[in-house]
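Hi P.,

Sorry for the delay on this. The queue was packed all week, but I finally got your sequence through. Input first:
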Amino acid sequence: TYIHDYQSMIIFGCNIMLIDIILAAHWYHATRGPCLIDPATSPGVIAAGERRIVLIFILALAGTIAAPLSVYASIVLFALIPLAFILNTRLTRFSPRIPVIWKQEH
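Then the structure:
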């Protein structure tokens, strides 16, 4: 079987880390200017987004490092990444609802 081939886990982890770096760049760009986010967005929501991005990177890095040692441990670490989005954090609890600015005409 292929469960002992850890190379794909390393490639997957590097891919997740690259995507997370791009996400961090987008988040930084969007939250540093007054035009791209709601001016009423609290610093706590911005900080929660930054913490989530860092957490994802740490989990991806740990999963990548763990891959040669244990593919199973690597899978578990990678499986924890979606929890950063699923859990009800400050980012999802306090973020304002996105207004509908475009409606589909029937």
